[in-house]
Queue: 3 jobs
Job 1
Amino acid sequence: METSSFPIGKHRRGMTLVELLVVVAVVVLLVALLLPAVQSAREAARRTSCMNNLRNMGCALHGHLLATRTFPYGCLEWKVGKGGTNRCLAWSGFILPWLEESVAAGRLRFDRPYDHADNVPAGSMAISVFRCPSADRSGELVDGLGRTDYGGIAGERIASGPLAGPLVHEKRFRESEIPDGISKTLFVGECSSGAWSDGQWINGRNLFEQAFAVNSTVVYDARRGIWIDDELRSRHPSGALALAGDGADHFLSESLSLNVLAALCTRAGAEAVGGLSSPP
């Protein structure tokens, strides 16, 4: 007769409630320890992608410079609002051929306003190089046009006044017309936090004049009588990324001196500039 190999009357002992709670507590603790590291790794990857976007734009700006001997217009035929005959075409549209965006470049009608029906086929294209993966905006389009999370630097409102930057309305600059030096002049910066109705790569209003600190949450400065507008701000912790005219990307800390920040946003201020940090 076959007999069971297990002792009769004995049973396997299960986990008690206390033991189960201990296991759960250990798992929760491990998740709590690992989650910040995972989030940090993800943000590092997003920041690297953002840096690559800016470097590609830097190469494209220099492609334009080599082909035309000037950097592009910041905005050609500025206008407020929509409609009318002014084209209001953006710097980012002029560099498309050097971003390997030949389809968008071929569709873009430079003889039409950015919001003309003839420019919908080009303007509605979503171009990945103009989008920061850390941006807190959803969707690839803004009011039916391709989104951008990067703006051209038209100047600053901290010290010297408006339109002192390298990408301005109705003007194209030769390298020799930027006496501060292109390596010490910011051309493009992130504007990837919060709503931005002008954040369309074809729209010539995707320019800004810096008035506050990087990533500032101030809405109004009563002393200067200045409201916040499009500014250098991002969802990267502790700062934002920007592109200098020599094609180098830089991480601008939230603690960067306002005087230094103002100097970086001008093309001919003759300031002594320091404090730039290049990401690894």
Note: The mean pLDDT is 87.
Job 2
Amino acid sequence: MELHKIFAASVVSVYVMLAGGCHNVMYTASQGLSGLSAAAEAESRKLASSGLQETAAGQEYRGAARGANVWDSIISDFRLGNGQRAQVIHHKNIMRTTAHGMNALLGRSSPYIKTIYGEIRERGLPAELVLVPLFESGFKVESKSHMGAVGFWQMTPITARHFGLRVTKYNDERRDVRRSTDAALDLLAYLNKKFDGDWLLTLAAYNCGITRVTNAVKRNKAAGLPTDFWHLNLPRETKNYVPRILALASIMKDSGSYGIRIPNVIDHPVRPERNVITAK
């Protein structure tokens, strides 16, 4: 859908100022799973304690079955790079020690990843965006933060409604995989346009809000400093959020060296009954 048909630009600006409100977990090395959101970390630990970290729901892994693996297409489509940045290497080293939990989360993604990647590829967006729900919610549609953010993409009610989702007591489309993905990608596309195609600034704004990132860029510009993501003064969570996504993308290109097992997803569509969770 085209954004100008959803709402006026002024309304978008008001909304996006609030977009970072649902990302509130500060990163510390002691969190273990490289600073996942509270929802994602809880889901990873739940899967791991249930013995599902290796074969979530009977999941096979790359090389275990014949045919094209959706993840192979995703990985070959990664294009944001920066794998050798010091900040990214830092998170890659942490993820090497927490592969157990990361494998659990990747296994959880299997019923949905084909749908999410299909939407991303159709729009011509970076494949790295498939990793955003991993760090937001651990690929758990029922996930809810204490700020009221819900679903894979951890969208607040105001976020969801402004991007065309229904959020009622009986029908919360933030838990609908296709609809919430469409709305989240609309938001990401809007942010990317605002930042002249810079995807690192886009991801930063998705995390902490467009106002903070815009103000940080303006401060650096006024001081004669570089205005790329790596030189901005942003919240610590955001400074770690973007490198985490880049780190996992880089690791997945060399998964064996990091103990990461790539799920083998051949043709595993989302089951309709899991798309929408009706509130009781």
Note: The mean pLDDT is 79.
Job 3
Amino acid sequence: MHQAGTRVQLEHQIAAAIHEWFSGRSYALALGGAQSKGLADDLSDVDFYGFADDWPDDGQRTLLAHAALPAATGVRSWSQVPTQAGTDFEFEGRSVEIWLRNLSLLVLQVERALSGKIERHYCTWAPNGFWDHCALADLHSLRIIEDEAGRLADVQDRLRQYPHALKMSLCQVGFASVNFWRGSFHLQTAIERCDEFYLQSILHQIRSELVQALFAINEVYYPGDKKLERWFERLPSLPRDFRARWIKTAALGQATSSEWRSRFDGLFTLADELLRLQEL
């Protein structure tokens, strides 16, 4: 168990080390991830978000991390120029991730999302694809440590009211696969054949997209897939017995046609109830 005082001291040490990276540069620094969203547990890492328009290269950041934090182990740095970079390590029994974002480019991404323009990028570390509007949930929940120019605070101010255009776009995306597969000849024949892999794929597609509509209807920025069931508890508008019914729609292993049909019928019923919530 990591005591709160120890955690705060650790955060101060790391923040001071990151400050040295940006000597002479304009930057903002914040604590994010589970720590700022109120979902941290003993297994959670410590996530720092740095925002600037440039930063030291991978080799320099690794050297600076070793110099400022001699107890850090497994220091590794990476970059995807010009959008982002990171430095990760273990420090005093905690996993630490420092994610650097190009603030000017990020502001453009935020503006696109607020206007209802959303994209999903497929990458290895995001099994369901990375929705670029997830950045809004991160930014909205950040605990700002340093922001001398006020640029990060300005972004947070823009996010205080959930935008109608984003809500409409995500509801359209969220119900798209439901509308496509309901009554589909290909789904019905797959159920009759008990075509396990295909059915699992369809079921997962519908669930992973429907959850986008769920958060949008509640006007809560989608936080990504991790710990999603805990987020459900925070949403004010849900269909009756939502969590129990949601669990029952999870993919099956070997199952009969009637069991597969029951899964999809349950999911389509939930979708109908969500649609009614959207119309309220």
Note: The longest strand covers residues 94-102.
